[in-house]
Write a structure and sequence with these properties.
The complex is a heterodimer.
Chain A lengths: L8 H23 L3 H37 L6 H18 L19 H13 L2 H20 L4 H30 L2 H35 L3 H9 L6 H10 L3 H30 L40 H15 L2 H22 L15 H12 L1 H4 L10 H6 L4 H31 L4 H28 L16 H27 L3 H41 L3
Chain B lengths: L5 E10 L2 E11 L4 E5 L6 H8 L7 E6 L2 E2 L4 H7 E4 L11 H11 L4 H14 L15 H13 L5 E5 L7 H16 L3 E5 L3 H7 L2 E6 L2 E7 H24 L4 H9 L2 H5 L9
Parallel strand pairs in B: 3-8, 3-9, 6-7, 7-8
Antiparallel strand pairs in B: 1-2, 1-4, 4-5, 9-10
């Protein structure tokens, strides 16, 4: 028998956690051996720096608010701050799922890692993100503000902030884990899509009812929101404020109960997360076909009997044949089976609905900021461009080791990229149609010039993205696992470059639209955008003409990077 | 003289200061079942990657069917089929979709690609798995699918990097039958494998690469004779008689040397 070193479970777990931390450090240090690795680190630090600054700014604001509310005995009002923080903490990772990165820890499961240790590692790695950075800074600022105003409340405020942060971290991961599970199956994806569609239409019918009710309540002296406030007190963002307010007025029992309830919310999130992690720990895979029964194997010798049936008919793309059509069809099939893609495509419509209530619906005479009126459609399209950036700027990422096929096939890379861009273009067009319909249902059809400017802006943005994305895809490829929502490997430099390009493109289009409208010549914006489309088209063609030698020169890096386990 | 199916001249590939393939000059005649052997890290996969356009050589020339691969890559690629290391499949397509896609990438029209896809899936006993995602296939099924994809356009030269690795005996029989039928129809097959019994059974010609250098090349009999000469010189007529019965494995070990294995510790005390 091989000699196994006996070791107490706790000691072994500690050793494993130290080993995991050590290997993460080694991976980071080893990544610095290449220029690319160093660039990745620099770009991560750069992004971290700016979000850190944002967090610091927010922390100063939260500190001032905490100090003010504590000084004036209005700690209940902290709930407003905590609700904003809560919405950011949960909303940002979802809205930015196309750009954010997290370490995938599931490959640790081949080691004899105990379940609690796996949960801990998963939660710690999952917590690393912009939302935790900004949220953590804000909570720290708030605690310091309260501590300065009321030193006696410092410990309670720190505990409340800690529990609130833990709840948010657990909830965000729980939501991601369950979304990943639901979006992995075609049936549940379709149900979710139907849900979004129903939400879209129901909101339009419910809105007049809410407004009528709101009016009646206002006359009676109580808005619907005000009536909901007592309920909100028992929800996680309201509990810390309520607990601190109670403690400040000497009702320590109520304060402690509030914090206990907050801890219970956190435990509930953990329990739901546990259901997913436990399944993952036991070896669950979220593959498309995982739910299907395996087909029976044919009896030996039966394979050659009878004529071979032709394979199922392939769907056609009118006017596009040959390798370009084949690549485009392959891309569309791939993306149709991707929960990440589904989520990315649904998010612009969801956000359009949400923002509709915040800004666009509010854009009515006498009540609302006029600068956003009627701009739901273009803003939705701009966001759709953003969520596609992960695929456009890393278009070989989903091919993984399959990218080798492109190099052994007789097809030029110009055609391969054209096929990929065509698929992305079709998705963007479909997204634009969905957004147009959503905006029309919610707010009525956009003005003709807005429609024209948006379509041209989309064309300009897409062409610029395709041109820059094709180059970045060749220079900075990174493998993408389409079965996962988030938890992709880092692509800091290319992600940053993609964001810079997107910022420039969307910024130019926005300047044209806003400028044209501000000076009373909206059709001038359309004309400017048309010129930009022509320029972007020429640039795109130039890039397509130049990709072949670049691809051949970069083939070793592409294959090595995308074939990594 | 026939144009060789595959020919290299002083083919070299360096990775920094490490020379993976060092001035390899090969000739593979049309219709040959050619085995390219070597120990781990000898340069087999690097060579096959260069011959299939996956890797650029540092220096040297490569010709496939008389065409310079560097000058006419697309023309060469149309004539060859490849099962590269790692198979290069697209995991989130079904088996049928994948073969259809590959067929169209090689210029087959859609009805032809669909027909051949059906035939290949049946031949490979994957007909009932056609709607399953490739990522859900077993390793052996993926190997069969990769081979089906490599031949869907009817290549004249087939490059196979470890096609039998991880394949069970039943699947291996299917693969061997297909390869032999291709040879019977005049195709050339260039194969690397660690399974020397299979190479001995299938291949008519063999080359052995060791530490990046080609150390032997020829038919199995020629290799035997080469070893025989060496053994004969060392051990006289008795040794030469023994050499006649050498298996490919024994020839291989004599050529690449078992020195490293002999020098390694023979057991790990803590393991048993």
């Amino acid at each position: 028998m091989a000699e196994l070193t006996p070791r107490a479970p706790a000691s072994l777990t500690g050793q494993q956690l130290r080993a995991i931390a050590g290997v993460r450090w080694r991976l980071l240090a080893n990544s610095m051996r290449t220029t690319r690795g160093a660039l990745e680190l620099v770009s991560h630090l750069w992004v971290g720096f700016w979000f850190g600054l944002l967090g610091l700014g927010a922390a100063v604001g939260a500190g001032a608010a905490g100090w003010y509310f504590a000084t004036h005995g209005e700690l209940e009002w902290l709930a407003v701050l905590l609700w904003v923080l809560f919405l950011f903490w949960q909303g940002f990772p979802l809205a930015a799922s196309a750009f954010t990165e997290q370490t995938d820890t599931s490959n640790l499961l081949r080691f004899p890692l105990r379940y609690p240790a796996y949960v801990l590692v998963r939660i710690v790695f999952g917590a690393v993100g912009v939302e935790t950075l900004v949220g953590g800074f804000c909570l720290l600022g708030m605690v310091i503000g309260i501590g300065i105003a009321r030193p006696g409340l410092l410990a309670g405020a720190a505990l409340a902030a800690l529990l609130f942060a833990a709840f948010n971290i657990l909830l965000a991961q729980m939501i991601f884990a369950w979304l990943e599970r639901w979006l992995a199956r075609r049936r549940t994806r379709e149900i979710l899509a139907l849900g979004v569609l129903l939400l879209l239409f129901s909101i339009n019918f419910i809105r007049p009812l809410i407004e009528r009710l709101g009016g009646a309540r206002a006359e009676a002296g109580a808005s619907p929101l005000a009536r909901l406030l007592p309920l909100a007190r028992w929800l996680p963002p309201g509990l810390p404020a309520h607990a601190l307010a109670a403690a400040a007025s000497g009702r320590y029992g109520v304060g402690a109960a509030g914090l206990l309830l907050l801890a219970a919310w956190g435990l509930a999130a953990l329990a739901l997360l546990h259901l997913r992690l436990r399944a993952e720990y036991r070896g669950e895979t979220l593959m498309e076909a995982a739910g299907r029964a395996p087909a029976a194997l044919p009896p030996v010798g039966a394979a050659g009997a009878g004529a071979a049936p032709a394979a199922a008919a392939d769907f056609g793309l009118p006017g596009v044949g040959g390798p370009v059509g084949a690549v485009a069809r392959k891309e569309l099939r791939y993306l149709a089976r991707s929960p990440m893609m589904f989520f990315s495509l649904v998010m612009p419509v969801v956000l359009l609905v949400l923002f509709h209530f915040q800004f666009f619906a509010a854009a009515r005479p006498g009540r609302h900021p006029p600068h956003l009126a009627g701009l739901g459609f273009p803003i939705g399209v701009a966001y759709a461009l953003l969520v596609m950036s992960n695929l456009i700027f890393n278009c070989f990422g989903t091919d993984a080791a399959g990218v080798q096929f492109y190099f052994v096939s007789p097809v030029a890379f110009r055609q391969i990229l054209l096929g990929k861009n065509l698929a992305s273009g079709l998705i963007l067009a479909a997204e634009a149609v969905a957004l147009y319909l959503a905006a029309t249902v919610l707010d009525g059809p956009p003005a003709a010039w807005v429609l024209a400017a948006t379509v041209l802006g989309l064309g300009f943005g897409a062409l610029c993205d395709f041109a820059c994305g094709n180059l970045l895809s060749l220079y900075m490829p990174k493998k993408i696992d389409l079965s996962r929502l988030g938890r992709q490997g880092g692509r800091g430099t290319s992600g940053l470059a993609a964001l810079a390009v997107q910022g420039l493109v969307i910024g130019l289009a926005a300047i044209a639209v806003v400028g044209g409208r501000a000076y009373g010549h909206p059709w001038l914006a359309v004309l400017i955008l048309a010129l930009l489309v022509v320029a972007a088209g020429l640039g795109y063609l130039a890039v397509l003409g130049a990709v072949e030698p670049i691809a051949q020169g970069r083939r070793e890096t592409l294959i090595a990077e995308l074939s990594k386990a | 003289m026939d144009t060789p199916a595959v020919a290299t001249e002083a083919l070299t590939r360096r990775f920094g200061s490490f020379t993976a393939v060092d001035s390899v000059t090969l000739r593979v005649a049309p219709g040959q079942f050619f085995g390219f052997l070597g120990p781990n890290g000898a340069g087999k996969s690097t060579t096959i990657k260069m011959l299939t356009g996956l890797l650029a050589p540092t220096s040297g020339r490569m010709e496939v069917l008389g065409l310079d691969l560097m000058a006419h890559p697309a023309e060469v690629k149309r004539q060859i089929g490849v099962v590269p290391e790692g198979m290069a499949l697209f995991g989130r397509l079904t088996g049928a979709e994948y073969l259809n896609f590959v067929g169209q990438m090689y210029g087959l029209d859609r009805p032809t690609a669909a027909r051949r896809t059906g035939e290949l899936l049946e031949f490979m006993q994957l007909g009932d798995q056609r709607k399953k995602l490739v990522t859900d296939y077993s390793h052996g099924m993926q190997k069969k699918l990769a081979l089906a994809a490599a031949v869907i356009h009817g290549p004249r030269v087939l490059f196979l990097d470890e096609p039998f690795e991880g394949v069970d005996a039943v699947a291996a029989v299917t693969l061997k039958n297909m390869l032999q039928s291709m040879i019977a129809r005049g195709a050339t097959i260039f194969l690397t494998s660690h399974v020397l019994e299979i190479v001995e059974r299938l291949c008519s010609h063999v080359a052995i690469i060791h530490r990046g250098r080609l150390v032997a090349q020829g038919s199995l009999d020629e290799l035997r004779q080469g070893v025989e000469a060496g053994v004969g010189a060392a051990a006289g007529a008795e040794g030469a008689a023994a050499a006649e019965k050498l298996t490919l494995e024994q020839i291989f070990l004599r050529i690449v040397g078992g020195g490293a294995a002999a020098a390694a510790p023979q057991e790990l005390s803590w393991l048993s």
